[in-house]
Amino acid sequence: MNLLDLTLIDLLGVMVGFTLTIFTLSYIWGDNLLFRIATHLFIGVAAGYVAVITIDNVILPRLIDPIFSEQRSERLAALIFLVLGALLLTKVSPRLANLGNPAMAFLVGIGAAAAIGGAVTGTILPQSTASIQVFDQHENFLNALIILLGALTTLIYFHFGMRQTVRSANTGITWLQGVGYLGQMFIAITFGALFTGVYLAALTALIERLLFLWTILRDLFLSLA
Amino acid sequence: MAEIRCPMCSKPNPDDLEICQYCQARLKPLVVDPSAPQDNSDLPDWLRSLGEDFSDEDEGTFELDGEQEPQDWLERLEPEAEQASEAPESSDEDERQQPDIAADEPDWLQDFRTLEGEAEQDEFLEEEEAANQEQAVPDWMKASGLAPDDAEDDLTPDWLGRFGESQEADAQNLPDWLGSLSTDAEQETQAFDEAENVFQDEDDDTPEVELPDWLAAEEQSLEPPASEPFESVAPLATGELPDWLSSLSPMETEEPPGSEPDEDDQDFSDWLAEEPDVLPVEEPEPDLPDWLSEIGGQPPAAAEEPDQAEVEPDLPSWLDSEAVPEPEPEDAEEAEMPDWLSTLEGFSVPDEPQPPLTLDDVQMGDQESRAVPGWLREMEDSTEVEFGDDAGAGWGDEEAESEPVVGKVSPFVRDDDFETDLFDASELPDWISDEPEETAEPVDDELAAADLPSWVQAMRPVEPDSQPDRSQGPMETAGPLSGLHSVLSAELEIAQIKKPPAYSSKLRFSEAQQFRAELLENLLSTEGQTKPIPRPAIVSTQSVLRGIVGVILVALLGLLIATGSQVVPLPQITTIPREVSRASGLVQNLPAEARVLVAFDYEPGMSGEMQVAAASVVNHLMLKAARLTVVSSSPTGPALAEHFIHTIQARHDYQSGRQYINLGYIPGGITGLLSFAQIPERVTPRSFDGQDAWASEPLSGINTLADFDMLVVITDNPNTGRAWIEQVHPAMETVPFITVISAQAEPLIRPYYGLQNAQVDGMVSGVLGGAFYEQATQSNQARLYWDAFNLGLVLAVAAILIGGVMQIITLILARRAEQRGEAA
Prior knowledge:
The complex is a heterodimer of chains A (225) and B (824). Chain A has 225 residues and is mostly helical. Chain A has seven helices and no strands. Chain A is extended, with a radius of gyration of 28 Å. In chain B, the strands form two sheets. Chain B has a six-stranded parallel β-sheet with strand order 5-4-3-6-7-8, with helices on both faces. Chain B has a two-stranded antiparallel ribbon with strand order 1-2. In chain B, helix 2 crosses helix 5 and helix 10 packs across helix 12. At the A-B interface, helix 2, helix 4 and helix 7 of A face helix 31, helix 33, helix 35, helix 37 and helix 38 of B.
């Protein structure tokens, strides 16, 4: 990327990006005005962009255009969607919020059905089957054993149905609690991996921003030179 | 000027004086002629009230003949005396008629009841009066001519008979004024001597009657040793005489042999009837002392008047006690009595020397009106009798109840003015307006008899104590509970208005309570106050440490980037992870111009990592000349996709609609993905730039998602990756599925890879995955980040280790400091 080759709009965009990157990196010294300006601009620009995308990519081609379609079914379907969408807008007013309940119920119901159906058919059943068949792969026996142990101990850790008795309270750690501690260790490792992934993602983003800054500065200095 | 001789000192005094100028004794009696205007200021209260009663009676509703009336009541008493002196059959018959009452009542009260039963026959008795007198009076009484007064003798108190003998016997101990009575006592002694001969035999069988203490004491004090003639006077049976009458019985120890108890009453009345002959007859009216005149005249008045409420308070205290006195009026009378009189209790003696009482004074039937004393004329002239006042009911009342009131007797004292003022006769109900007329009618015997049931009379103490025990509380003097002590008086409780207790409105509390209240008040007051949040220090250790770490990290990374360092080698191809190698193999195995569906579902903030991770994969696809169909479930995805294709992969110069098509944004989240998996053409009919997507070359021959040759999902969100796996992959199970994910989503997406029935066929995660994939594709995108990336990892590990060590050191120091503090 050479700054001299960029148009004024692109150059302006690059400079805005450079400035907002500096503002964001100012968070190293804590919450400050520059960081807040950057975050507020990011949220505002993202919301505006989403609105534009929604209008341009959803409402106009899928709701407004079918009303003027030559096909009657499309017009009828578009009117139904329009009415349901208009009823959702009544949720803004507490007095008229009840009018949006049917459309909201439709959305929530369909979303729940899709999520549950997808979770059952796409996650629970395949994952259960894979966990059962893990020992079929003899080359990964140790891995399969760790997976089995981690799955069982983690499930045991989340077993809160154990009855608390006076005897168990006095005897201290029971075998179930010991297994639960092992599951807790697997959970801790999982969260550590997730945190590592978050850190790697953030580190990559930082490197990308630093590389961006360096490129801008480099091209700026090279162009000035 | 006329002179009056003082009855005390016998010295002459002027007629206009009322008090002796020598001895200060009263010269004129206290009883005033009712016809004359009365001046009661000098009189004692009890006499004054008597005078008032008599003056009220002057305005009565009926008038009695002053000359005939005394004879009438004496005549009415005569049948009673006749019954008492008659054969025992008649008395037994009366007892059978009232068995319960006769059992508990004294004889004198039974006699009154006998009179009550025969009161209706007064007229008949008057007609047969003469014949009855002949039959009832014994011979010796006939000779004396006193027979008609037998009934009166029964009603005469015993003090009358005892008075003479007592004075005679104890003449030496009496005061001077009583000394004048000695002559009369001697005459009485003579009369009783004669009577002794009659009752001598009867006295022997007379049992001793228990006397009250005060009577016994009185008897001992007044009984002379030489009063033997009186000891054999009254041979009465035990319980047949009232106490006051039975007080004479101890003196009458001798009883004639063979006498029967039924004849006692007759005999007793006989000797009493005989007594007037023995007693000297004095001039009736002027010389008769008032107090004695009252005593003598009381029985006739009681016999005639059914209610003695107004007369009763004038009686002496001892007579009051016999006549069922009221406690409080009795006390008042006692307070008004002189000391010497109150000490005698039952023996009232006036201030002035009184002549002895003779029955001639009482026997007024054949005497002229001038012989009647003034007090008796007042009582005779009294024309009004008030009913309804039981307070003064006494023995005279009992007799009065037995006497039917005839004539114009008004039982109520009518106050016409009051009645006129308060009520209009027309407004009153009939029963009220008619009541005076009804009450004006004579009272029949049934009304009097129904006042007290027999069982109540049986329970009723007949003789209230003459000396009420004040320690037991006030004694009931009237009604069925007469004689009982400590009777609850409803009148007092009702009439007594108690002042309500005053409660202070001021709250009383102790110091401890006040302290607690103040403490609670302070707690409540502090609850409403906002506690200021401590302002964090501008420069804190944490912020400094964070700044130092950030500066170091940025400086080192910037240094590496600025220098373009490529010191750190890329991973070896032999160490490429399986998921990366499988992804690379799948791409490598794609046919030429394969239809690949690529989902750009990552956020702009993660574009740096995702671009590095996806660059090698997309580059590989473009190298394979794949026709890319770009879609996104995120609003920013289509823009990021365009930027990626035109910047990162700009060298491939992919053109929209020809080598790739951007279907844009799929709204609705997982539902939108589900719809896209089922009917992709309807969900995304147009491309991101408004073209007819499904008519473009990349989508030629594509009707369903299963028609695609590969599915590549580039996302930084594990949920988005799972949504694609759950909602879209089932519609394209036979299509290879590669995920390019962020390093933070790898732990959650990896379970869908590597299994026997894995849903994800290949996976590239983060910069590391991109670097491995570049080894396979010989790209250079990850190389720019690799040195900085590894340095950043080292710095992160170092920061974690240094932070952990510092934390341990801090804890150790804190524990040592704590141990030192405990040791100190």
